[in-house]
């Protein structure tokens, strides 16, 4: 029997109704069982993973790519632990924040419910298969997982653990669909199935995300890039600014919450920039500096407009001296990717104005941009980071995989 | 100078930043001034409206269409009053629901902010121009209004009131863009401008909504149709059921929250259906009945699968006898448009199970589907009704035109 994406998506929609009606303890029991089965089936999973690794090596994939694919006992333990942690989080489904009585006599509330069917389109990391399935199941959603072809054997082996856990709990197995054929045509078809699929979350490179968001008829939550700004105000505590610069730029350069641009108030530049230069030199960070700040940095290159747009994801940073607070806001308004922006200032009004004025997904005063992460912000596990404002903005946890319906309780009322 | 949609959308995005930073009283003052100017410029608006009416009559438009276009003093008073009511509603922007301290020491909250730039694509009613602009401004958004060509003179005359109010308050006039040329090509271009526009809300016939949602790269909130179900349980209070049927089907047949299908438990059919038949006969409602119920209704036709999908928007109803509660749920799962569903039952568990199980945008126990409306549910004025689950589900008020950003307050914390 050939695989039909439309058919499977329809079946997933039917299965989603059963999931939406499960209690929290039923869902948690499934999740805990998935975690146990991942460890129980270690040998089969690692053997399947070995097939992917060998194929990747034969195809001469870059070693970083091969590393991303690789699973071992310790990786499986981490994956299983993450699933148990998701089981331990609170369940948003079914909660009603408040019920109000209306003049007509009816009582009106909003109840949180699952979105329905969520499709994940992702690249090579096999752990996404389990992470995404666990988060979607926790929120009562069916999920369609379309991973990269490099990880297909690993993904199918992991999917067997999910399938077994669902079966043991008498859940319709179409609640979690792992697309067995990572063909482009199937992905393209998936993006047209808006009658069955409620949301697509692409995870991977900018090319993949752009392709999905430009071609999908199903709503897409997108995260293009993080061009995070640090603004060092003239009222900044210089030690805080240095720590936040160091942590933001050098701790993990490949993260989307790493710093890419630093704006410095002109009145603090002479005191702050030499210290910043020493720090960046020690951390081997290449500097792209504006004309006024160029002299502070040995070996720096002159920043161009491209640098203000750049997400380096490397030990590089763009630095600009600004005349005042408003100039910093104007620069961020122009170049922000909507991800995370930070002010360092001891001035109360300035910090408050920054927090209010900048409408990026995460706005911070006196804290490292590296905190812009689901776990650090208190959401638990993260299914993605949205830089578009609709539905969810910023790091997305389980609650972002739900919506709210209106509940009306009457006693025979009709409309006048 | 020719009109450039891309350019104007970009200018609207720039203007949106100023709007996002206004206080509630500044926004309310603009709204109250718009209301006053609509009455002040009555003559000019009615003269412009007369141009549209004459053109429509010359083009032999149906008289219902011409009526939808027509403005008079009383219509303008209602429009102005609606704007003042929107000004009087509470402002969601800037509110933070709670701030929590994280283990790292940072404090994390979520602050409500405007979406940015909202585009409305609508058909002939000129009051939408003011309603939509007022709701978008209240939430701090810039708005692009693309109305139908039949109402273009009326829309431009109303837009002048908005322009004057913005100017008097020193607001960038691109905060409200009325597209002067309702050409299809301009609408098509608008739908590609996802770098500037955050949300498109189409209002009008199903054809328009489908066209926009299938072709837009900007996120769309769609409301296709309302196939609202009434389920009369065997534990129903028959008088409540009759009142809710009467109100739901006959009060306003053209509304999307009118009833289209009634499901009746087989054990109450013999008692309830003769009374329902008398009521529907009195109201001149045409009945499409299932095989088992056909005998109860004089002049009824046999229901086909098409009837279970139908949004009649007329004095017609589809009626089906179901074996039990589960069969009612299964029918709704299959045919629901995700709008509004009602159970009439005095059985506590049955009502609760219905409320939990049905994930339409509005789910009711013992109340008329006609309450499924922004005003009745307590949202104030309504900008649309979403039957897709992302971002907003059901009637949308001012809060649906906002999103939330994360706010992080630190004192120099960095990530470990």
UniProtKB/TrEMBL annotation, chains A, B:
Q: Which GO terms describe its biological process?
A: L-proline biosynthetic process
* Pathway assigned to this chain's UniProt record: Amino-acid biosynthesis; L-proline biosynthesis; L-glutamate 5-semialdehyde from L-glutamate: step 2/2
Gene Ontology MF: a single term = NADP binding
Q: What is its main location?
A: cytoplasm
The UniProt keyword set, sorted, is:
Amino-acid biosynthesis, Cytoplasm, NADP, Oxidoreductase, Proline biosynthesis
Gene3D superfamilies cross-referenced by the UniProt entry: Aldehyde Dehydrogenase, Chain A, domain 1, Aldehyde Dehydrogenase, Chain A, domain 2
Q: Which reaction does it catalyse?
A: L-glutamate 5-semialdehyde + phosphate + NADP(+) = L-glutamyl 5-phosphate + NADPH + H(+)
Q: Which InterPro entries match?
A: Ald_DH/histidinol_DH (IPR016161), Ald_DH_C (IPR016163), Ald_DH_N (IPR016162), Aldehyde_DH_dom (IPR015590), G-glutamylP_reductase_CS (IPR020593), Glu-5-SA_DH (IPR012134), GPR_dom (IPR000965)
Compartments, record wording: Cytoplasm
**Domain of life according to the entry:** Bacteria
- Domain named Aldehyde dehydrogenase is located at 10-286
Going by the record, the broad EC class of this enzyme is: oxidoreductase
EC no. given is 1.2.1.41
Cite the NCBIfam families for this sequence. Answer: PRK00197.1, proA
Q: Which family is annotated?
A: Belongs to the gamma-glutamyl phosphate reductase family.
Q: What does this protein do?
A: Catalyzes the NADPH-dependent reduction of L-glutamate 5-phosphate into L-glutamate 5-semialdehyde and phosphate. The product spontaneously undergoes cyclization to form 1-pyrroline-5-carboxylate.
The protein here is known as Gamma-glutamyl phosphate reductase
Q: Which gene encodes it?
A: proA
